[in-house]
Amino acid sequence: MNKFLHDLRDCRQWTDEELTSQLHKTVARERDCLVDLLVRLGEFDRRSLSLTKGYPDLYEYCMRSLKYSRSGAARRIAAARAGRKYPSLLVMLASGELSLVGAAMLGPHLRPDNRRRLSRAVRGRTQEEVAQLIAAIAPQYAKRDSIRILSASNSAIEDRSSASAAISISPLVDAGVASPIDSAAPGGVVANPAHESKKRAVALYTASITITQETRDLLKRAQEVLRHQAPKGELDPILRMALELLLDKFDRDRRKPRAGRPSKRSQGRSSRHIPEAVKQEVWKRDGGQCTYVGEGGLRCSSRACMEFDHKKPFARGGRSDSPDNIRAMCRAHNQLLGRLEFGYPPGSSYG
Ligand SMILES: [Zn+2]
Fold this sequence. Notes:
Elements: H1 3-10, H2 16-46, H3 49-52, H4 58-64, H5 70-85, H6 88-95, H7 100-106, H8 115-122, H9 127-137, H10 139-142, E1 146-151, H11 154-158, E2 164-168, H12 194-200, E3 204-208, H13 213-225, H14 235-250, H15 276-286, E4 306-310, E5 326-330, H16 331-342
Helix pairs in contact: 2-5, 2-6, 4-5, 5-7, 7-9
The structure holds zinc ion.
The site of zinc ion has 8 residues, from helix 16.
């Protein structure tokens, strides 16, 4: 019989004391397992093995290969990285003085000059208390941005791109003076354009974001300038317009092909600069997706933070004006190849 079925049967026979004792022993084993996991994950990260296996980053590896949820992956990665840098966190985790969530929250804020003080401050604290401590030292990080679905029609599952969103914006630190942004609707929630959602039959999302004073001022000004398009200062149409303009400028999938003669900068075989026409051809050929293929044959799925990479490095005589020598590559894999080819330090790209 399966061990777990044995356990299920046996634990019903235990006395209350035996059950309590077994429960505590199991929790201790679970903590040991967690620390073992974080140590291994930290070393896996240090070796960049998720990249060499064809994943765009460690988060994707944790979700797709290790089957963690997004938040589960994020917590373990943050704790593993912090534990690698400050092993005393792992000792606290193993003893139960700090939870995984606490370590993940605290990790990014630890520095050599504050680690002792903060470690002492969080020891034995609850998750909420650790969160309060983090909020006190780094208010800008205390509130996580989030987008969650509010309601969805059947068609919305197929067409998420046309979803409408309501965004609540309220000052996190400075109460300030009431503004159109703050007082757009009770609780700062902007009304959803119901007439549009009826026409399009889409999902609705609610988003909560933490923004700086500068962003708030820009939004406030956009509400004033775009009063014709958004009479009540609704943020959804304003954000949609801003994002359309932004993506028209930066998203190669949306850019119109530019014709014309190559610029002087791109002429000649000796230039490192990749001509725009070559970029367009390569982007189309590679589908705007990273072309790195990992050891097991897995092609990287990333379409974010994309760069153009010389297959034969420019420094070794590779051409910039031939699409055959250029490929689309995410920054992480471009950097990985740079480290393998030239021994560049982490964080630098090469082409
Ligand atoms: Zn990649």
